[in-house]
UniProtKB/TrEMBL annotation:
It is found in: Membrane. Its main location: membrane. This is Protein kinase domain-containing protein. Keywords: Leucine-rich repeat, Membrane, Receptor, Repeat, Signal, Transmembrane, Transmembrane helix. PROSITE patterns: PROTEIN_KINASE_DOM. Residues 280-324 are annotated as: Disordered. Gene3D superfamilies: Phosphorylase Kinase, domain 1 (3.30.200.20), Ribonuclease Inhibitor (3.80.10.10), Transferase(Phosphotransferase) domain 1 (1.10.510.10).
Length: 648
C-alpha cells in the first residue's frame, strides 16, 4: 500500500503531460498573433491544417521530416512585437528569416532560441544597442544577417568570442561605432561591415578579407585602407631612469650596438665572397650556353587524338590546324616549375620526349559536346616515369609578369582537397604559358551528361547526388582558401569537372581570373555570363546552380555558349518558370524521375537539391547562398542548418 502511494503521484504527472503540451501548429498560431500586417499573407496558417502537410505546407514554413525547422517570412509587410516565447515550443527550429519587413525597436530576444543556426533580420528598422553578451547563448549560430537596419552602439563582443562555427556575418548599413572585435573563427568566410561608424585598426582576424567589406567607415585604418594606423607610443619609453638602473641600460645598449657592429662586418665579408662565387658560376653558364647553341630548338611531338585511319604518327600537323607543336626557341628558356610534387618531379625535357595527343576543350574529341569558352587548348602526354598528365596551353595571359604568375600558380598548387584538381607544374614564356595537371582517365561531367554512351552508362540519382555534393564541397573549400579573390573559381562548368574512379567529382581550372587579360576574361570565364553587374564569389554560386540544374535535367545550358551562339537551353529560366507553375517534375532527367517515383527519400533529396539550384541561380546575388550554406543544405539529415525556398 505504501508503495502504491509513492507511485501514484508519478502516474498523475505522466497523464498530465499531453494536456500541457503544445503542438507546432498551436505554437505558430500564437506567434502569428503577435504579427501585424495589412494584407493576408498567412491565410494558410489555420488550426485545422498541418504546417508540414504533405499536400499543402503553410506559407513561409520550412520542414524536415515533418517537423518545422525554418520560418521564412520575407517581404510581407510585417510589423509588431515578435513573441519569441511562442517559438520555444518548436524543438527542431534552426533558422528564422524576417528580412525586408517593417519591424522596429530593439532586437527581439531570439537569443532565447539557443538551437538556432541562422538568423536573418536584414532590411527592417530595428534600432538601439545590442548587448555585448546577446549571442553568448547561441553557440550553434552559423549565420547572422543584421544589415540594413538602424542598430547603434558597439558590435556585440559575443559575436567574435562565443560563436565558434560562425560562417556568415552581415552588419552593413547600420550605425555601429567603436572598434571592430577580433574575429578569429576559421569558419568565417562571408563578412560585411561596410557603411557604419566604426573606427580604429582592422583586427588581424579580418585582415584576409577584401577591403570592400570595410568601406564607408572613415574612422577605420589599416594597411589596405587609405588611412594608415599610427603605432601607439610605448608609455614606458617616457619613464626617467636614474642611478644604477640608468647605468644598467647603458651597458645593455653598448652590448647591443657592439653585437650589431660585429654582425655587419661578418655580413660584408660574406657578401664579398658570394659575389666572387657568382662571377665564377656566370662564366661557366656562358661557356655551357655557347656549347648548346646548336640544340636550342626543341619540339614536343603531338598526335591528334582520334586519328585512327592509320598507325602513323603526326608530329607537326593536326586535323584542326591548331596546336601543331610546342617549341622552345630560346636557349635559356625556363624549365618546368613544380608546384605540387605528389605525382613526382619531372622537367620540360620529359614533356618534350613524350608523345602528346591533342584533346578538345573539354577533354574529348570534336564530335562530343563542347562547353564553349576556354582558357586554352590541351594535350595529354605520358612521361617516361609513367605518369600521365594534361598540359594546358594558355595564350590569354600574355601580359602577366613571371613573378605574378609564379606567385599565383604556387598558391593554387598548395591547395589540397579530394574534390579539386590541383595543378602540378607550370612553364612560363612571354607568348604563352603551360599549366600541367594530373590526367583523369574518366570523361568529364559534360560528356557523362550529354555524350552518347547508352543507357548502361547513364548516371543514376545516387551518382548525381554524390557529384553535386562533391562539387559543393570542393567549391566551398576554394571559397575559403581563395576568399581574397573576387572570383575564387571563375570558370565552373561541367566541362571543368572530372569524375574519379570512385565517382567523386574533381573541380579544375580555378583561380585564374587575375592571370587572364581583361579583354579575354568575358570570353574565357563562364562566371561573366551570370546576370551580375559585377562578378564576385556569388557569380561562382550562380555557375554552381547552373551545373546543379544541368545534372537534374540533363539539358545542355545555354549559359556555357558564347554570345549569339545557338544551341543549349536556358535551364535557369526554364526551371524557374516550371517551378512557379508547379510542373518542375516533368523537366527532370528520366533517371531522376524514376528515383523520385520509386522512393520517398529520393523524392525529398531531389526536391531539396532543386530548391538549392533555383536559389543559387537567383538574379539578385545578395539573395544567393554562400557555398558553405549550400554544403549544409545538401545534407538532408542536417538540412535544418538553413532555409531553402520554393513554395509549391
Amino acid at each position: 500500500m505504501a508503495m502504491a502511494w509513492l507511485i501514484w503521484p508519478f502516474i498523475l504527472f505522466l497523464t498530465a503531460l499531453p494536456a500541457n503540451s503544445i503542438t507546432e501548429a498551436e505554437s505558430l498560431l500564437k506567434f502569428k498573433q503577435s504579427l501585424t500586417y495589412a494584407t493576408t499573407p498567412l491565410d494558410s496558417w489555420t488550426p485545422d491544417s498541418d504546417p508540414c502537410g504533405r499536400v499543402q505546407r503553410w506559407i513561409g514554413i520550412l520542414c524536415n521530416k515533418q517537423s518545422v525547422f525554418g520560418i521564412r517570412l520575407e517581404q510581407m509587410g510585417l510589423s509588431g512585437t515578435i513573441d519569441v516565447a511562442s517559438l520555444m515550443d518548436l524543438p527542431a527550429l534552426r533558422t528564422i528569416s524576417i528580412m525586408n519587413n517593417s519591424f522596429s525597436g530593439d532586437i527581439p530576444e531570439f537569443n532565447r532560441l539557443t538551437g538556432l543556426k541562422s538568423i536573418y533580420l536584414s532590411g527592417n528598422r530595428f534600432s538601439g544597442n545590442i548587448h555585448s553578451n546577446y549571442f553568448s547563448t547561441m553557440v550553434s549560430l552559423k549565420k547572422a544577417w543584421l544589415s540594413n537596419n538602424e542598430f547603434s552602439g558597439l558590435i556585440p563582443f559575443s559575436l567574435a568570442t562565443k560563436l565558434p562555427n560562425l560562417i556568415s556575418l552581415h552588419l552593413e548599413n547600420n550605425q555601429f561605432i567603436g572598434n571592430i572585435p577580433n574575429f578569429t573563427q576559421p569558419s568565417l568566410v562571408d563578412v560585411n561591415l561596410s557603411n557604419n561608424r566604426l573606427s580604429g585598426a582592422i583586427p588581424s582576424g579580418l585582415s584576409k578579407f577584401d577591403v570592400r567589406i570595410f568601406a564607408g567607415n572613415p574612422g577605420l585604418c589599416g594597411e589596405k585602407l587609405p588611412i594608415t594606423c599610427t603605432q601607439p607610443r610605448d608609455a614606458t619609453a617616457s619613464v626617467l631612469i636614474h642611478g644604477r638602473m640608468k647605468d644598467a641600460y647603458k651597458t645593455k645598449y653598448y652590448i647591443a650596438f657592439g653585437t650589431l657592429g660585429f654582425l655587419l662586418v661578418v655580413t660584408i665579408i660574406s657578401l664579398f665572397f658570394k659575389k666572387k662565387k657568382k662571377k665564377r658560376k656566370r662564366r661557366k653558364r656562358t661557356r655551357r650556353a655557347s656549347e648548346q647553341d646548336s640544340n636550342n630548338d626543341q619540339q614536343i611531338q603531338i598526335t591528334v587524338d582520334g586519328s585512327r585511319t592509320s598507325g602513323s604518327r603526326q608530329s607537326k600537323s593536326s586535323r584542326s590546324g591548331e596546336l601543331t607543336d610546342i617549341s622552345v626557341r630560346e636557349s635559356r628558356a625556363a624549365d618546368l616549375v613544380m608546384v605540387n610534387k605528389e605525382k613526382g618531379v619531372f622537367g620540360l625535357s620529359d614533356l618534350m620526349k613524350a608523345e602528346a595527343h591533342v584533346l578538345g576543350n573539354s577533354g574529348g574529341g570534336g564530335s562530343r559536346p563542347s562547353s564553349g569558352g576556354s582558357v586554352g587548348s590541351a594535350y595529354k602526354a605520358v612521361i617516361a616515369s609513367g605518369v600521365t598528365v594534361v598540359v594546358k596551353r594558355v595564350t590569354v595571359m600574355n601580359q602577366v609578369s613571371v613573378d605574378v604568375f609564379d606567385k599565383e600558380i604556387k598558391n593554387l598548387g598548395s591547395l589540397r582537397h579530394k574534390n579539386i584538381l590541383t595543378p602540378l607544374a607550370y612553364h612560363f614564356r612571354q607568348d604563352e604559358k603551360l599549366l600541367v595537371f594530373e590526367y583523369v582517365p574518366n570523361l568529364s561531367l559534360l560528356h557523362r551528361l550529354h555524350g552518347d554512351h547508352g543507357e548502361a552508362s547513364q548516371l543514376d540519382w545516387p551518382s548525381r547526388l554524390k557529384i553535386i555534393q562533391g562539387i559543393a564541397r570542393g567549391m566551398c573549400y576554394l571559397h575559403q582558401e581563395l576568399g581574397f579573390l573576387s572570383l575564387p573559381h571563375g570558370n565552373l562548368k561541367s566541362s571543368n569537372i572530372f569524375l574519379a574512379d570512385d565517382g567523386e567529382p574533381l573541380v579544375s581550372e580555378f583561380g585564374l581570373q587575375r592571370l587572364i587579360n581583361l579583354d579575354d576574361q568575358v570570353q574565357s570565364l563562364v562566371a561573366y555570363r551570370s546576370p551580375d553587374e559585377t562578378v564576385s564569389a556569388k557569380s561562382d554560386v550562380f555557375s554552381f546552380g547552373v551545373v546543379v540544374l544541368e545534372i537534374l535535367t540533363g539539358k545542355f545550358p545555354s549559359q556555357y555558349a558564347g554570345i549569339n551562339r545557338a544551341g543549349g537551353t536556358n535551364v535557369v529560366e526554364w526551371i524557374g518558370s516550371a517551378v512557379e507553375q508547379g510542373e518542375w517534375m516533368n523537366l527532370l532527367h528520366p533517371s531522376v524521375i524514376a528515383a523520385a517515383n520509386d522512393d520517398e527519400t529520393s523524392l525529398d533529396e531531389i526536391e531539396n537539391v532543386l530548391r538549392i539550384g533555383v536559389r543559387c541561380t537567383g538574379e539578385d546575388p545578395d539573395r544567393r547562398p554562400s557555398m558553405s550554406e549550400v554544403v549544409d543544405e545538401l545534407t538532408m539529415e542536417d538540412s535544418s542548418d538553413d532555409f531553402i525556398t520554393i513554395e509549391t
